Amino acid sequence: MFFVESSENSHICPICQGMLRYRDSRPRICKKEGGTRERLMIRRFRCQNCHSYYNELPNCLVPYKHYEAEVIADVLDEVILPEDLDSEDYLSFNTMLRWLQWFRENLQRIEGYLRTAGYQILNLGEELLFTPDLLLNKIIEGVSK
């Protein structure tokens, strides 16, 4: 079992900007490629202002998913294909289809987040907001070089 701890000192509520206070930790299963599982201890926080709860996830996990982010990314990038699944311990074809469907349904929202971050945070200019090209493809191409 691994304990996951953030390097951030202050935690701020994304809803009301109130301070988050450590509440407790809970186990979380992380499924890896090949079906192996790890148990992680995830810290939970509660907002002192609006009383919302938040889990502190490491970058290897995706919210609401048990498989690690790398496995999900490999399915979306077609590195892992249904033909590769030769073990009963591995993810199912239906799981892969759900991830692909979710990605297709949320692609416009993801693009909007990328454009907003590029414009507001990175100051990349207004041409970024109106380019017809998918920014996600440009990021993927830049990372693979």
Structural class: alpha+beta
Supply the number of helical segments: 4
Uncertain residue segments: none
Let me know the number of strands.
4
Quaternary form? single chain
Order of helices and strands: EEEEHHHH
Nutshell version of this structure?
With 145 residues, the protein is of the alpha+beta class. The protein has helices at residues 69-76, 93-121, 127-130, 135-144, and strands at 2-3, 20-31, 37-47, 53-55.
Structural write-up:
By secondary structure, the chain is α+β, with helices and mostly antiparallel strands. Strands 1, 2, 3 and 4 form a 4-stranded mixed beta sheet that branches. It is built from 4 helices and 4 strands. It has a domain at 1-66. It has helices at residues 69-76, 93-121, 127-130, 135-144, and strands at residues 2-3, 20-31, 37-47, 53-55.
